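User: Can you model how calcium ion sits in this protein?
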Amino acid sequence: MMGGTGVLSITTTGTVSSTGSIGIAATTTLKATDSGITVNANNVTAISYGIFARNGGTGAVSITTTGDVNSRSRIGVYARNGSPGSDLTVNVNNVTANANGIVAEHGGSGAASITTTGNVVGRTDPGINATNGSGTTDLTIAVSSGTVSGVTGITAANNSSNSGATTTITISDGASVTGTGGTALNLSSTTGASGTVNNAGSITGNVTFAAGDDTFNHLKASTPVVGGVLQIVDGSIDFGAGNNTFRNRSVLEGFAGTLPAFMTTGTVTFANTGEIRLMNGTAGDVFAISHNFVGETGSRLTVDVDLPNGTADRLQITGTVSGTTEVTINPLQPGIATTNQVRIVEVIGVAGAAATNAFELASGSEQIGLFAYELDNIDTPTGDDFVLSRTGLSAQAAELPAVSGAISETFQRNIPRYHERLEGRASSNNNE
Ligand SMILES: [Ca+2]
Ligand SMILES: [Ca+2]
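Assistant: Here's the modeled complex, given as C-alpha cells:
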C-alpha cells in the first residue's frame, strides 16, 4: 500500500507464495492516489486471494498475470474499481481457485475488459464473475485460448445506465467455456444493455441473454448434428426479451437438422452471412427454421438435387424472408435429361410475400455440364416455393450439334405444370 499521488504499481516476475490470506494486495483510497493501480505478476499462490486490487481513487485498474495464480479457498484474481475510477482491465493466463477464478467489480466511468489465455477455473462459483455498474460503458470478455470453467462458466452483468453500453463475450477458435452447473454463459443487465456472444470455440452448457437486443454469432467451422438436432452449443440458447439475432457467419451443416429447438424465448431473427450446407451427396435433407430469415451479404445455401428422381435438399422457413441468398446446386444425376422440377426452399407465412430475388442461383449453378438451370419463385397459398428446373441446354451443350439435336426438344417451361401439382396437393390435403 502506498500514499501520495500517482499509480500504485506492483511488479513481480518470479513466484509469490503466501501462507497468509492474500498473495498480492493493492488498495487505494481517493485521498491516497489519483492514478489507479497496476499489477504485473507471474506466479502467485495464497489462501484467500491470489491478487486483491481495490481502487478507491481515480484512474484505471490494470492487472496482468503471465503464470499460474492459485487461491486455496476463495478468489484467484479480485479487481475492483470504485466510482471515481476509469477503466478496469484484467489479463490472465492460468487461474485456479476454490470459489471464483476472477471477480471484476467495475464501478468506474469507463470500460471493463477481461482477457484469458490459459485455464481459468472456479470450483464452487463462476469461473469469471464480472459486473459493470451504472456509470460504466462496455463489458468485454475474451477467452482467447484455453478454458474458462466454473459452476457457471462466465457471469457477465452490465448494469450501465449509458445508452449503447454492450456486453461482448468472444470465444476464439480452440478455446472453450464450460458451466459445470448447466449454464456456460449468463449475460444479464438491469438496464437493458445489449449482449453479443461470438463463438468460434466450444460452449458446454446453456447460454442465457437478458431483455435487451442480443446477438449470437456462430463462427465455428462446422456443427455436428446429434439426434437430428443441430448442436450450436452443447446446451440451449435463451435470448430472453428484445429483438434478438442468431447469425451464422460460418458453416451450418444442417443434415436432417432442425433449428428451432434451441431458441425458445423471445423474438429471434435468423441471419445468414455464411453457408447453410445441406450438400453432402444425398438428396432429401430438410433444414427447418421457425424464425424470420435474413440473407445478409455472403449468404449461401448449398443443396443436393436429384432431378431425375424428383428429390432435393430443402430449406424450410416459417416466417418472413428478406435479403438475398445464393443457392448452389449439386446435381446428383447430371447427365440425365428431365423436365422434373424440385422445391429447394419452402417459405411458410404470407402467400407470395417473399421477393423473387430472396433466393437466386449462384452463377456457377446456372449452367452445369450440358444443362442450364433456373430457380423460380412460385407463390403458394401459404407462402412461396423456390423451385429448380432445367430450362434447356447449357452454352457448352449448344456448341455440340449432336447433343443439341437429341435433347433440346425435351425442355419446355414447366411452371404451369408446377401450379397444377400444387393445386393437386392442396385439394388432396383438403380431402384428408
Ligand atoms: Ca434479449
Ligand atoms: Ca444433402
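A couple of observations from the model: Residues 209-212, 214, 239-242, 244, 266 surround calcium ion (ligand 1) (CB under 6 Å). The first strand starts at residue 8 and ends at 11.
User: Helpful, thanks.
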